[in-house]
Amino acid sequence: MAAVQIVRFGVNPPAVETGKPSNIIAGTPQTSVQNYYTDKTGNFYSGVWESTPGKWAINYTEDEFCTILEGRVVLTDDSGKSEAFKAGDAFVIPAGFKGTWETVEKVRKFYAISERKG
After folding, report:
1. CB 92: neighbour CB atoms within 10 A?
2. Is 58 in contact with 66 (CB distance < 8 Å)?
3. Rounded to a whole number, what is the distance in angstroms from the first to the last CA of the chain?
4. pLDDT by 10s per residue, the chain, length 118
5. What is the DSSP string of 3-35?
6. Can you list the pairs that 69-72 forms with residues at least 24 positions away whose Cβ atoms lie under 8 Å?
7. Domains within the chain, CATH numbers bracketed
8. Of 1, 24, 38, 111, whose CA is between 20 and 30 Å from 74?
9. Could you tell me the pTM of the whole model?
10. How far is it, in rounded angstroms, from Cα 19 to Cα 51?
11. How far is Cα 9 from Cα 57, in angstroms, rounded to an integer?
């Protein structure tokens, strides 16, 4: 049986996956992700995510912990309450959050996501 190994971000980086958000409201945001780790169940994963400026609707079915490494974003819930985040900020987006994600300046973040399946 192989020993469980620690995953260090930046070492042996995974392939970059590019795309764009669905439900775009403004701009032409482009995203990229490097998923460094997925657990055996596929319910937990973590990596690095980037986005160019733009705004899109979000509806979280997962819990996500984020740390902004560079750039600025604004998350606004369905009631209109906004929270701004910049490099150095860390936060959790809980499952059930609905609203918008706006990348104000090109953003790069660490993410850790836990999905509720079943």
Report:
1. 10
2. no
3. 29
4. 678 899 999 988 999 999 999 999 999 999 999 999 999 999 999 999 999 999 999 999 999 999 999 999 999 999 999 999 999 999 999 999 999 999 999 999 999 999 987 6
5. PP----TTSSPPPPEEE--SSEEEE---EEEEE
6. 69/108, 69/109, 69/110, 70/106, 70/107, 70/108, 71/103, 71/104, 71/105, 71/106, 71/107, 71/108, 72/103, 72/104, 72/105, 72/107
7. 18-115 (2.60.120.10)
8. 38
9. 0.93
10. 9
11. 29
Supply 10's token pair.
Answer: 């930046």
Look at the block and give the residue holding tokens 């403004």.
Answer: 26
Kindly state the tokens that stand for 1: 């049986």
* Cα of 41 vs its chain's centroid, Å: 20
